Amino acid sequence: MERCQQCGSEIERAALFCSQCGSPLRNGSAGSSSAEAPTTAAVTAAEAPAYPSPRKPSSFRPASHPSRDEGRFTPGMLIAERYRIISLLGRGGMGEVFRADDLTLGQPVALKFLPESMIDELRLERFRNEVRIARRISHPNVCRVYDIGETGNHVFLSMEYVDGEDLSSLLRRMGRLPRDKALEIARKMCAGLAAAHDTGVLHRDLKPSNIMLDARGEVRIMDFGLAGLAHEIKDVRSGTPAYMAPEQLVGKEVTVRSDIYALGLVLYELFSGKPAFAGKAHDEFMRVRRERPPHRPSKLIHDLDPAVEMVILRCLEEEPDNRPSSALIASAALPGGEYLIAIYRPDDYDPSLETEAMDRDIDVLNDEMVAAGARMFVAGLSPAGSARSLRPQPDGTLLVTDGPYSETREHMLGFWVLKAADLNEALAWGRKAAIACRAPVEVRPFHS
Ligand SMILES: Nc1ncnc2c1ncn2[C@@H]1O[C@H](COP(=O)(O)OP(=O)(O)O)[C@@H](O)[C@H]1O
Ligand SMILES: [Mg+2]
């Protein structure tokens, strides 16, 4: 066991700072408050995963803030007797974000500080409430929120540190991303968004700078649950946020479909490399937004896949009801969306019935997915030797007969096709089909 040179306390091997006195343990003398951020170069390979190497802050632009390079805290400072500041990661609408080490748990974290002007009891209570809700989301594509910290005049949020780059900076640097990479990012964004929506959390501030890609290319959606507060600040500082849905701009009810609109704007940029609405300054950008719908992205990018364009334009419909009802549907409608939505296995399923005939699918036609650009999707696997016709009945039951599928109008392309008004109905039919056929039924989007 090593000991801290400053106070003599025992220290963990992987620790960068002493958990007793907070002194840096590597790179120089303990207890020094050098402006040089302690680096992780001394950490061994085996310990590396807990301490990703420091990266260049992506949205931190020294040129525009020459006198404030380090933000309000300098590297090495100890915050709330627990967090050692490593470096400034960026500045956004809400305040500054720092990389820090959590000395108690020996983990890297990101700390987001609220502007001091925002700190009053009413707002703090709202902030705590939003964080309470955001902590319910657990998904690999959503940045984990850990806790709120309060010390002196500072209130901050601790969250997962993402060693990577935000999409806004990536797009500025690279322009349009290769199609497959863009599709992968789009799907992961949709998955994270859908998981949050399932938990009942809206984002309300989805935009490229709130999407991060880590060193392995994993996607994280940042700042869930913080939008309420962020908007309050932005309304004062920079007018109305550029990625808000039209109904949000006029103060109407914000729903899942408002996040879907913002998703459409992010997808637009992801696939075309350009924002949907041009305008150098924020006001100009907002004026263009008010005056016209976005240009079709295929006008900018001639080889854009029509299915991608369809998804984008559907997400950007003015009328919320005309947008895809969920991020999952938007994702399912993207090209190559072999997306397994659900699998049903009836209680009395007999695996001995499973033979090669199981590859016969029963598709459930989902008009909404079709409209969103997909040609459709999903279905069941029929047990051996028992090809059946499945017909939805007006009373909601499923009529199962032994006749050949050619008897049914719903038969198409060798699959059974059940028309469903929306994804929930498709899922319900999938469940019924599983019970009726006594076989597992998969529900998935299908692209012919
Ligand atoms: N958890 C995090 N891990 C790593 N970097 C982060 C994290 N959160 C934010 N950042 C960086 O700090 C920048 C500013 O963040 P934020 O204050 O949320 O501003 P914005 O309004 O641009 O979202 C982001 O663009 C990102 O580059
Ligand atoms: Mg952010």
CATH architecture identity of the largest domain: Orthogonal Bundle
Q: What would you call the structural class? A: alpha+beta
| Rg result | 26 Å
Average pLDDT, to the nearest integer? 70
- The domain count comes to 3
Unique bound compounds: adenosine-5'-diphosphate, magnesium ion
Strand content: 15-25%
- Kindly state the percentage of residues in helix: 25-40%
Strand count: 18
Q: In angstroms, what separates the terminal alpha carbons?
A: 62 Å
SSE topology string: EEEEEEHEEEHHEEHHHHHHHEEHEEEEHE
Largest sheet: 6 strands, antiparallel
Strand order of the largest sheet: 3-4-5-6-8-7
Count every helix, treating DSSP H or I runs of 4 or more residues as helices.
Answer: 12
CATH superfamily of the largest domain: Transferase(Phosphotransferase) domain 1
Please mark out the parts with pLDDT under 50 across 5 or more consecutive residues, or reply none: 14-68, 233-239, 353-388, 402-417
Description of the structure:
This protein has 448 residues and is of the alpha+beta class. It folds into three domains: 2-160, Phosphorylase Kinase, domain 1 (2-Layer Sandwich), CATH 3.30.200; 164-332, Transferase(Phosphotransferase), domain 1 (Orthogonal Bundle), CATH 1.10.510.10; 337-446, Dimeric alpha+beta barrel (Alpha-Beta Plaits, 2-Layer Sandwich). The protein is built from twelve helices and 18 strands. It has helices at 121-134, 167-174, 179-198, 227-237, 246-249, 256-272, 282-291, 297-300, 306-315, 327-333, 367-371, 423-437, and strands spanning 2-3, 10-11, 78-79, 83-91, 96-102, 107-113, 145-151, 154-160, 164-166, 211-214, 219-221, 342-344, 361-366, 377-381, 389-392, 398-401, 416-420, 441-445. The strands form five sheets. The chain has a six-stranded antiparallel β-sheet with strand order 3-4-5-6-8-7, with helices on one face. A five-stranded mixed β-sheet has the order 12-18-14-13-17. α3 (179-198) runs antiparallel to α6, α3 (179-198) runs antiparallel to α10 and α6 (256-272) runs antiparallel to α9. The longest helix is centred in the middle third of the chain and has 20 residues, at 179-198. It is globular and about 75 Å long. The structure holds adenosine-5'-diphosphate and magnesium ion. The site of magnesium ion (MG) has 5 residues, from loops.
